[in-house]
Amino acid sequence: MTEPSRSALTFHEETKHSELSVRTSSHYLDWGNRPYPFKTYKGLPLVPLPHEFSHPSKSALKAIRSDNQLTADTLDLGILAELLFFSGGLTRIMKTRAGTYYMRAAPATGALYPIELYVVCGDIPGLKAGVYHFNALDFGLVRLRGNDFTAEVASATGRTGITYPLTIAFTSIAWRNAWKYEARSYRHWFWDSGVIAANLLATSSSENFPIQIDLGFIDSQINHLLGLEPGKEATVALAQIGIARQASESRQTVAPRLALDVEPMSREEVEYSIIWKTNEESELLGPREVEAWKISARPRADRNPARGPLFHLQPLKEEQHSPSTLERTILKRGSTRRFAPTSIPFEPLSAITSAAASPIPLDFQLPNESLVDFYFIANQVEGIPPGSYWFNQAEGSFEQLKSGRFRDISGYLCLNQPLFADASAVFFLMTDLHRVLDSLGNRGYRAAQFEAGIRAGKIYLSSYALGNGASGSTFYDDAVTEFFSPQAKDLSTMIAVGVGVPAYRARSGAVLVPKTQPT
Ligand SMILES: Cc1cc2nc3c(=O)[nH]c(=O)nc-3n(C[C@H](O)[C@H](O)[C@H](O)COP(=O)(O)O)c2cc1C
Q1: Ligand 1 pocket, 15 CB below 6 A?
Q2: Is residue 9 part of a domain?
Q3: Is the CB of 419 under 6 A from ligand 1?
């Protein structure tokens, strides 16, 4: 990692949205060149995943909070199918004049789906040890390597003497999202991975499987293992699933270079060099850097109480308890396209916030620590006056910063999208980037964006679990900071999410796996 350069800050500054930057952008969408949203390897057979697999049946809110003991240890192909489906599987197919859209279990900026999932596992019942790519369209796995490389993952993540039975790797294909969002799309690598990770964490918890997410790994080693094309795609995160075991020496296998042939996704691609510069300058180059990364984040600074009125989080009332299982919640989830400009009660907002702020097992900090602060605009929440708020996590209360009716402002801050003026509340997940980069270096940028992505995913899921709707949003960076200042004066916005009551009845998605599977 090149230190003390702050290339991540340069990237952040250069990719801020403002009214001016949006108005003067000359970028247009070349629909004929829209990237195909599935990675297709030429000439490699598909190992079908089973059609019949268990669905996450635990209470959605419990699974999102993951406050149960995670001790399950009997992985098999069915569990793998469940984890992959409820994180990245197809839940809706929409045919429009512009073409067919395949919507998935987790949201994705611009419905472009830049994140690919890979599996690295030892032998598990129903699946031989190997490195596989998850093909969401055909619901199967493409075997890229046929040996046990779990020790290779352990070595790249600084673990000696133990291996995890299963790793799900998240990678990003840069052009898929840059086609629409240009250089700013680098942020989406982490947003789009984060929301998928929220689904994976909840699904794993529903099945009682231990899970740990690593952002600390030797980039070149994992990218090589997965056969990624340098300068086009890179690994974002590794989810370690199951109970770690003593590694046997014989498991060490050298990973030769892979020669993979992939279908082009677009007629032509544009490269945004700032994306690759920022990513490269946040790489971990060797074991010492990986070691130094672990639990090295300085947690959020204590903020001064805002001195405004305080509202303690309230538990759900009996009639607000939703019996929604995680399965139903994920299948129902979709990004709300129109909110009714109405209210939601305070108790569900409390439940959504506390679920979204619940501990996450990330390698750069202790599970109950966080890089992310929750700010929000309450447009219409029964039980608290309209205004702007900060969530004091230590106290479990919302502190009012400004009182007032801010529907126009919440819409404006979200790039003037009426959707976010109509939302009952709009969250802005913020972080002190200087503080984060001081302790984690440039890679801290990945960490803050990714953690915000997971928390945004938890907002989505808990809103739907309680019968409401949600949609992620982009935003005018500096205008958000200004609006929440002085309290937020040192903070940068990572992600925005609106929650509220959908203005229409959306049909639920389904478990869409192809009827006939290739052999
Ligand atoms: C981090 C994030 C930001 C998003 N930003 C916007 C946005 O600014 N405006 C919008 O209408 N939808 C936004 N979306 C919603 C996506 O367009 C949506 O997830 C995608 O079309 C897939 O549809 P689905 O969520 O219904 O499955 C965002 C989603 C995420 C995860």
Answers
A1: no
A2: no
A3: yes
Which atom of ligand 1 is least distant from the CA of 334?
26
pLDDT tens figures, 271-330: 999 999 999 999 999 999 999 999 999 877 777 666 789 999 999 998 888 779 999 999
pTM: 0.98
299/486: higher pLDDT: 486
Specify the pLDDT at position 323: 76
Question: Which of 22, 100, 473 for a ligand 1 pocket mutation test, highest count of atoms within 8 Å of Cβ?
Answer: 473
> Which helix (DSSP H) or strand (DSSP E) does residue 470 occupy?
strand 469-473
Give the type of residue at 472: G
Which of 91, 102, 109, 337 is the best mutation target for the ligand 1 pocket, counting ligand atoms within 8 Å of the beta carbon and taking the most?
A: 109
Interatomic CA distance for residues 324 and 161, integer angstroms: 41
Are the C-beta atoms of 503 and 340 separated by less than 8 Å?
yes
Dump strand ranges (E) for 191-242.
211-214, 233-241
Structural domain that includes position 170: 32-263
| 137, amino acid identity | L
Let me know if residue 293 belongs to a domain: no
